[in-house]
Amino acid sequence: RTAWPRCARRLFPPVAATTVSAAQGAMSLTLAETVSDTANPAIRRVDLAVSDAAEPGRVLARLTAFVSQP
């Protein structure tokens, strides 16, 4: 399974929360993806957080994207 979030693969993602582990060099990371509805049913909000797997509370990066239905 790839660690790429669904929004990066150009799919209209279902509402869900997903966590994936990945390695970047010698560092182990945790990618958390949360997809939620918006007021417009054709648009979903996607929140991504990348954390250090050794310190789950240490978020290294956050990204919020809005994905429209094709």
Please characterize this protein's 3D structure:
The mean pLDDT is 87. The protein has 70 residues and is an all-beta fold. Strands 1-2-3-4 form a four-stranded antiparallel β-sheet, with no helix packed on it. A hairpin with a 2-residue loop joins strand 3 and strand 4 (55-68). It has strands at residues 16-24, 27-37, 43-52, 55-68.
Sum this structure up briefly.
The chain is mostly beta strands and 70 residues long.
Identify the strand order in the major beta sheet. Answer: 1-2-3-4
What percent of the residues sit in helical stretches (DSSP H or I)? under 10%
The CA-CA distance between the termini, in Å, is 24 Å
| H/E series | EEEE
The number of helices is 0
- Segments where pLDDT lies below 50 for 5+ residues? none
Please give the number of β-strands.
Answer: 4
Strand content: over 45%
Largest sheet, strands/sense/barrel: 4 strands, antiparallel
Alpha-beta content class: mainly beta
Tell me the Rg in angstroms: 13 Å
Shape descriptor reads elongated
Overall pLDDT: 87
